[in-house]
Amino acid sequence: MREILSDLVAEQQYQDQFLQRTNIRDWKLPTPSPGWTIQDTVSHLASFEEYAYNALEEGGSRLEEAVRYPNQAEFTLAALLPGRSMRPQDVIEWWREARAKVVDSLSRKSPSDRVPWFAGDMSAKTFATTRLMETWAHGLDIHQTHGAEPEDTPRLRHIAWLAWKTLPFAFQDAGQPYEQPVRVEVIGPAYAKYVFGPEDTDQVIKGSAGDWCRVAVRRRSADDTSLKAQGAVAEMALKVVRAYL
After folding, report:
1. Strand partners, 228
2. Are 245 and 169 in contact (CB under 8 A)?
3. CA 67, 123, 79, 149: dihedral to nearest 10 degrees?
4. pTM higher than 0.85
5. Angle between helices 209-216 and 156-165 (to 10 degrees)
6. Residue 66: its pLDDT value, please?
7. β-pairing verdict for 183-187 and 193-196
8. 186 to each of 151, 162, 197, 204, how far by Cα in Å?
9. Percentage with pLDDT > 70 across the chain
10. pLDDT bracket for residue 119 (50, 70, 90)
11. What percent of the chain has pLDDT over 90?
12. Phi then psi dihedrals of residue 135, to 5 deg
């Protein structure tokens, strides 16, 4: 757990530092997520860290709140609404306190411990990876609002793995059969190679880790990247992949 938690904290601090350099008035700027401002984005991160803590320490008793809403979008919106009446300084403190509780709880878990979540339970290590992925994905929105692009770091390897690991779920969610396993071979920062999946499959995705991760969090279309798919299942994977659960 030490490695993933170290990278999770590093990603959170990276986004936190960028927010500290953001003018208070800019917190009301619209992000690429329709209807969301920077303040909404940080409120969302904070509220879902609270759900994460509940899942880790209280058996996920709050997860059933999602079924009270007609769809995921309305539930997600309701979770961030409290932040709209707060000062930006209070919203970022909300996020800091919530995420610290989650990291502390995860630090006392075994990597294989099961954690309940909205889409089903998962290992504590995978759960920590989802927290890193969500921080990074929404950080892309915050950066883009300022016309910036965050620097890709070796932390992308976790998100790249998660995107591959959740392919069966992504296919199922899209109503598509996952007929053959897909192998992902992508290049990260400093020319590091990240490889996931069996060697004997003829369904392969190759390209940049940054592109693969951005496609997996639906911030970029595969058509706008240099990613290459070999095989029909791999081609479909680029269309349906979604790292978030």
Report:
1. 206
2. yes
3. -130
4. yes
5. 50
6. 87
7. antiparallel
8. 17, 13, 12, 10
9. 100
10. confident
11. 93
12. -60, -45
Tens-place pLDDT, residues 159-197: 999 999 999 999 999 999 999 999 999 999 999 999 999
Q: Which of 94, 15, 9 is nearest to 49 (CA)?
A: 94
Q: Which residues, other chains included, contact 4 with Cβ-Cβ below 8 Å and sequence gap of 6+?
A: 125, 128, 129, 132, 158
User: Where are the alpha helices (H) located in 114-191, listed in sequence order?
Assistant: 124-145, 156-165, 167-173
In the chain, domain spans:
2-145, 156-240
Element (H, E) at 9: helix 2-20
What would the pLDDT profile of 34-89 be if each residue is shown by its tens digit?
999 999 999 999 999 999 999 999 999 999 988 899 998 899 999 999 999 999 99
| pLDDT value of position 44 | 97
Pick the CATH number of 156-240 from 3.30.1050, 1.10.3470, 3.40.50, 3.30.1360: 3.30.1050
- Asked if 114 contacts 79 with a C-beta cutoff of 8 angstroms, the reply is no
User: What CATH superfamily is the domain 2-145?
Assistant: dinb family like domain (1.20.120.450)
